[in-house]
Amino acid sequence: MLEINYRESSDQVIAEAQYDLLSKLGEYKKLGHNVLLLLSGGSALKLLESGFDFSVLGSHVTIGVLDERYTDDENFSNYAQLVKSGFIGKAIEAGCRDFIDTRVKNGETSSDLRTSYDLALLRWHENNPLGKIVATIGMGDDGHTAGLIPSGNNFEQIFSPTNTRWVEELVVPTQLDGARERVTTTFNFLAMIAYGVMVVMGEGKMKAMKKLASEDGSHLETPARWYRKTAGTIKCYTDCKIDSAVGV
After folding, report:
1. Can you give the chain as a three-state secondary structure string?
2. Nearest Cα residue to 14 out of 209, 239, 241
3. Average pLDDT by consecutive 10-residue portion of the chain (248 residues)?
4. Considering the entire predicted model, what is its pTM?
5. Rounded CA gap, 87 and 81, in Å?
6. How buried is 31 (Cβ within 10 angstroms: 0-12 exposed, 13-18 middle, 19+ buried)?
7. Burial (CB count <10 Å: 0-12, 13-18, 19+), residue 146
8. Model confidence over 199-210: pLDDT tens digits?
9. CA–CA distance, 146 with 128 (Å, rounded to integer)
10. 94: closest CA among 22, 44, 45, 46?
């Protein structure tokens, strides 16, 4: 289920989305749920900055990313950004012990990274069959989410809902955000998210936001539309004012 909430400014978007995320993490901690917290790059990183309450974390939380850029440049690696920002260090101080580190190792191919990432998610699920997956989510101006970029090679075949893999590789025609290759969770995995907080900000996202909110459209053209189909709760906060920004 996707719920779209319009706010007048980007500051309001971040403040309310962060509050929502912290509230849900606090609730799951109180209820004793093990949590897999998967984090996105881009604007969603702002949810982890000023005001983030690390007390909602602990040994019950495993931390990773929703997708990764296949690059050894730490200025673009999603997981490296979490390390550089100090978030991972503060999470360790808060008691977190389990992390899915997707930084590219020396000599590691994109296929190697896909396999290790996929196995890490599978192991977490096997060890925590009743655990909750929580994610911070973004959307590109082309409607992509995570690394599900519609211009990538064989996109329709690789990311068809009939593909049961949880992680796939994708190559896009030109370098995007520092890398042409992505290793990303798939539609099949995104369907398992229990709770997601999505932020979409800026005039450049207006066209994609309208497609996301529309009753008609394809998730293969606008991958973020997949969240309309999921059983979990995805709460989208946006400063893009559209007529239907009330919940879908």
Report:
1. CEEEEECCCHHHHHHHHHHHHHHHHHHHHHHCCCEEEEECCHHHHHHHCCCCCHHHCCCCEEEEECEEECCCCCCCCHHHHHHHCCHHHHHHHCCCCEECCCCCCCCCCHHHHHHHHHHHHHHHHHHCCCCEEEEEECCCCCCCECCECCCCCCHHHHCCCCCCCCEEEEEEEEEECCEEEEEEECHHHHCCCCEEEEEECCHHHHHHHHHHHCCCCCCCCCHHHHHHCCCCEEEEEECCCCCCCCCC
2. 239
3. 94 97 98 98 93 98 97 92 97 98 96 97 98 97 93 83 88 75 94 97 94 92 93 96 56
4. 0.94
5. 9
6. exposed
7. buried
8. 999 999 999 999
9. 23
10. 22
Q: Which residue has the tokens 């971040």?
A: 14
Nearest partner of 20 among 141, 172, 198, 205, judged by Cα: 198
The tokens describing 248, both together, are 């879908």
The amino acid present at 48, given as its one-letter code, is: L
Name the residue with tokens 């398992």.
Answer: 192
How many residues are present in the chain?
A: 248
